Amino acid sequence: MHLSYQVVLAQLMLGLNIGAFYAILSLGLAVIFGLLNIINFAHGALYMLGAFVALLGYNELGPLLGMPDFHMNYWTALLVAPLVVGSLGVLIEKTMLRRLYKVDHLYGLLLTFGLALILQGVFTNYFNVSGISYNGKPEILRGAVNLKFMMFPTYRLWSIAISLAVCFATWFVIERTKLGSYLRAGTENPSLVQAFGINVPLMITLTYGFGVGMAAFAGVVAAPIYSVSPIMGSELIITVFAVVVIGGMGSIMGSICTGLSLGMLEGLTKVIYPPAANTVIFFMMILVLLVKPEGLFGKEQ
Amino acid sequence: MKKRLMQFVTCTTILGMAMVAGAAGISTDVVKIGVLTDMSGVYSAIGGKGSVTAAKMAIADFGGKVLGKPIKLISADHQNKADIASTKAREWADTDHVDMITGLLNSGCALAVQKIGTEKKVISIATGAGSTTLTNEHCSPYGIHYVYDTYALPKVAGGAIVDTGGKSWFFLTADYAFGHSLEKNTAAFVKAHGGKVLGQVRHPLATSDFSSYLLQAQASGAKVIGLANAGGDFINAVKQAREFGIVQGGQTIAGMLVFLSDVKSLGLDVAQGMNFATSFYWDRNEASRKWSKRYFAKTGSMPTMNQAGVYSAVTTYLKAIKKAGTDNPDAVMKTMRGMKINDFFSINGHLRADGSMVHDMFLVEVKKPSESKAPWDLLKVIKQVPGDEAFMSLAEGSCSMVKK
Fold it and tell me: I need a labelling partner for B237 at 20 to 30 A (CA). Which of A177, B71, B115, B164 fits?
């Protein structure tokens, strides 16, 4: 493949697109790990669930309500899916995860992994795995934009923009606001923070709800680009975990930056040596762990 | 002396009768058919539970009995892993006394099972596997390759696409044995029809984002982008080609292995105008429609060529037992090789010495949304290609059982 600057720029743009998904998913994981100490293996399944809320809202909700022409549109789905999945997250936290905070990380990992398998199994049973097209892409986001070096689909541009906006808003809230400082303090020393009259358990529940809500949000954004399928999360989750590890477990900025840059690295690999495209991130992980075991942005424990 | 002679006669008579009993009739008093397929993975929509339903229908339609003995069905998930497939096949052969195994959705699983079948004298009828090695290097006296192979598909579609003006090709290939062989065969037919291959890019199996590869294909300036992949990979590649304006820009997307379920999943908006090869389409004639509607009533979707193929394979196998008067695998194989296989699925079908079930193939085109009158009204048949033209000839093949 001949490498002109156009080809490289185009691949970087595409990589940024994948990277934005990596960033938003790994950010949710990092928030949950940072504040709850739970390695949330159900993240991929909840991402898939978000895409399905959008899909079913578009295809099935109307007929279900007796209004065959009604479709839950994309914008509504962007709000509804995180709320639905976030509520499910709250339920999971209140009934299951809460019991595991005092024991080893491993239990949380196993529980969420089990949840992921159940969710994925149920959806596979009903929807099969070949993928269903989501047709609710808004009219305004159809078509392509001329970026001089390539025609870039408008929707992909939008998905990069919205993902980055959500990522940086989250970072801002957690690192720069009072609410964020309560959150961080609550995980460092819950009893002290509680003594100041702050409801720490509620805060933690909502944090988990927020984290998985973000996964669902990413699912809705991904639905028009990729086919909606029960395995879409499990394909992504291992890579996203690698991103979290490279960025430094629990580091918010680490997740965002590594997500974006590894997405671009993957994009470049796809033109330079395609067979390595699926594994380049794991090579990076090995390299980083050898040199800096706590991750690029991680703090030494 | 007379006593000795009497003894001899009695002995040989008893022995002879025992041997006749062994050769004729049904061993273990039941005919057991196993459907081994992908129940949960990337190819489950293509075969999966639908294949089990098809096999059940075939047995029920046959009356549930052959030569007065019951027919039983068992099924399992091979998870697209050759080791699981071979473990299951071995267990079925040894402890369940399965007589025939069908389904087998990928070439790795099919090869593994066919090998065990050779060892244990269990007939295997692969309906979903593609690789031509099943009937060439690894051909077996008990192995049948029923629905399509990676030679027939591109032969029917590739040539036709070149003839209608698609002279230059660029391949997007799934980076494993199946993709490579599909790409290689397609390239050969493209060249044979006067086209040329400008290049290819190989992507890992189960890629969700094809945009990079598609841009490379676009930059190549090739008239046709040939997809040597299947299932989810195929669907994603086609969708994204549209998103990047590749089709609108005048390049054609050609899938080398496309299933009805893929077209349904893509929707006509996206898939319209595509040409591909298939061995079955439900809405082709009265017989195929009739069966498919019964299948639809049970499953909620129209059958893919694999699912229809499982029904046909099971029925053919049972007919052969009836005709041979035994379920002895050698006798059944011999009978099947002498049969004409004509049903709603197989047209002018016959089983060759190398295990290839040769039958007519179809070149189809995906309808425009305006042409489609019902939810499953998706394809139109453009051309019927005789089996002997579509499939690799015995002379070209390399099966060691075929004397040249």
Answer: B164
> How much is the pLDDT for B6?
58
Does the structure show a pLDDT above 90 at B24? no
Work out the average pLDDT over B131-152. 95
Range of the domain at B267: 152-281+362-390
Q: What is the mean pLDDT of chain A?
A: 90
Q: Is A137 on the interface with B (CB under 8 A)?
A: no
Instruction: Please name the helix (run of DSSP H) or strand (run of DSSP E) that holds residue B296, with its range, or none.
Output: helix B286-299
Residues in chain A: 301
- Give the residue from chain A lying closest to B172, CA to CA: A274
CATH number at residue B41: 3.40.50.2300
Q: pLDDT of B255-284, one tens digit each?
A: 999 999 999 988 898 899 899 999 999 999
If asked whether residues B300 and B249 sit together in one domain, one would say no
Q: Which helix (H) or strand (E) holds A144?
A: strand A144-146
Q: Is B96 a domain residue?
A: yes
Domains within chain A, CATH numbers bracketed: 5-291 (1.10.3470)
Q: Please report the residues numbered 31 through 50 in chain B whose beta carbons come closer than 8 angstroms to any beta carbon of chain A.
A: 40-42, 44-46, 48
**Does A225 sit within 8 Å of B40, measured CB to CB?**
no
C-alpha of A19 from chain center:
11
In a domain, B12, yes or no: no
Same structural domain, B366 and B356: no
**Could you report the per-residue pLDDT of A31-89, keeping only the tens digit for each?**
898 888 889 999 999 999 999 999 999 999 988 888 888 899 999 999 999 999 999 99
**Which residues of chain B make contact with A11, given a CB cutoff of 8 A?**
212, 215
Q: How confident is the model at residue B21 (pLDDT cuts 50, 70, 90)?
A: very low
C-alpha span between B171 and B209 (Å, rounded): 16
Q: What is the pLDDT of residues B98-119, one digit of tens each?
A: 999 999 988 889 999 999 999 9
Chain B, 202-231: which have a CB under 8 Å from a chain A CB? 202-204, 206-209, 211-213, 215-216, 219, 231
Q: To the nearest whole angstrom, how far is the Cα of A54 from the nearest Cα of chain B?
A: 17
Contact of B154 with B185, CB cutoff 8 Å: yes
Q: Same domain, yes or no, for B40 and B103?
A: yes
Identify the bridge partners of residue A69 per DSSP, sorted by sequence position.
none
Helices and strands (H and E) in chain A: how many: 12, 2
Final residue of a structural domain among B360, B379, B398: B360
Domain assignment present for residue B244? The answer is yes
Given a contact cutoff of 8 angstroms between Cβ atoms, the answer to whether A223 and A99 are in contact is no
CA B4 to chain centre: 58
Note whether B104 and B124 are within 8 A (CB).
Answer: yes
As a whole number of angstroms, the distance between CA B332 and CA B371 comes to 45
Domain count, chain B: 2
Does a structural domain hold residue B175? Answer: yes
Give the best residue of A6, A125, A129 to mutate against chain B (max B CB count within 10 A): A129
The residue-averaged pLDDT of B367-395 equals 95
Rounded to two decimals, the ipTM of the complex is 0.79
- The amino acid that residue A194 corresponds to is Q
C-alpha B344, offset from chain centre: 15
Q: Which residues pair with B168 in a beta bridge?
A: B196
Is residue B114 domain-shared with residue B174, that is, in the same domain? no
Q: What is the pLDDT of residue B186?
A: 95
Q: Report CB contact under 8 Å: A129, B236.
A: no
Q: Are B183 and B273 contained in the same domain?
A: yes
pLDDT digits over A171-226, tens only? 999 889 998 898 888 877 888 888 888 898 899 999 999 999 999 999 999 999 88
B121 and B238 part of one domain: no
Listed as own residue / partner, the contacts of A281-284 with beta carbons closer than 8 Å and 24 or more positions apart are A281/A239, A281/A242, A281/A243, A281/A246, A282/A242, A284/A242, A284/A246
Examine the domain organization and report whether B294 and B188 are in the same domain.
Answer: no
